What does this fold into?
Amino acid sequence: MKQDTRNQSEERIVDEMKSALDELLREGARKMLQQAIENEVAEYLQAHQGIRDENGHRMVVRNGHMPERNLVTGVGPLPIKRPRVNDKRKGQRFTSAILPAFMRRVPSIDALIPVLYLKGVATNDFSEALEAILGPNAAGLSATNIVRLKEGWKKDYEDWQSRDLSQSRYVYWWADGIYFNVRLEPDRPCVLVVMGAREDGVKELVAVHDGNRESKESWLEVLRELKARGLREAPKLAVGDGALGFWSALEEAFPSTRAQRCWVHKTANILDKLPKHKQTHAKSLIHDMYLAGTYEEAIKAYDRFVDEYSAKWPKAVECLTKDKEVLFTFYDFPAEHWPHLRSTNPIESTFATVRHRTRQTKGCGSRTATLTMVFQLARRAEKHWRRLNGYQHIIHLINNAVYKDGIMQKAA
It folds into this structure.
């Protein structure tokens, strides 16, 4: 009995310590955030203190605080007061970069919500799901708020779909079609995704569209829409799986763009046509092709594969040889770019986890909801996409410089 009492007492003390520590963390986070916002306002006022009206009065002044509101975070709701700034200049107003006017949740929680939705979590269950993941103090989202949030995401997607592209230029594209489960649809919808590399080497989401992966018309609709919104310059190279209807559409919409087949898809397709005891060696030969330092070395590995497997496994050899002309295009581009150009990994890595999870669930309720959620996830992932290695070469590519085995032979 004494031992049980002692254990209960110890557990109570531990719980009280945890509660006190949680409260200490929340208060510390609140103070740091509040101070950061105050400093931001102080810097804004300092930068504009010399601006005065005809009577000598300052045009930019402090004006107290907005009403306190809770910001939902992983450590719980933080009560924050946003400073009010009175900027009397016409057309000017202070906007906090740290705490925008309508922010109610930290971005990490906003990124979590579409993942839960794609996994098939019902709207009424979101609060419970968030509580299980982030703790009881992070729930703070009612079913009504979730519905409003989804409506806002739809508007964000529609605005993004109509954005002006007249000033955009992409040197590379990656294209893929990604399937998701939908509860209220008989067939799995496919989301067509195009990612691009800009002139500065930064990767950017170009298109997210509902369609058919193998359909030329679906992809042509995507490309025509991009052109209608002002995109004029064709990318130098596009990377994708051979089964996409994208290639026929690309040839019609942007005929000057060269093609590079994805080696990840190609490797999987070849190995699928070989017995398991042959796959390890075959995979090694395939690696020798696309990891070779020169085109000549790559073709030697290619010829060796054909010689070794053509007699007994002609289907595997046919899978390789039918795309020979578009498997080695990357050798005509800067060597620093090769790791980016051999596969559609920039797209695959972004959606792999979500696609795997939705296979195990009933998914979203409609095609529109799926498209909107995929868009939200992609835009958040976009912030973490890696810039191209050797992006300085892009200007030479744009000026039609010639590359051989990854080395510039002739500048434009």
User: Anything to note?
Assistant: The chain has three domains: 2-87, 107-160, 168-404. DSSP finds 15 helices and eleven strands in the chain. Residues 2-87 form one domain.
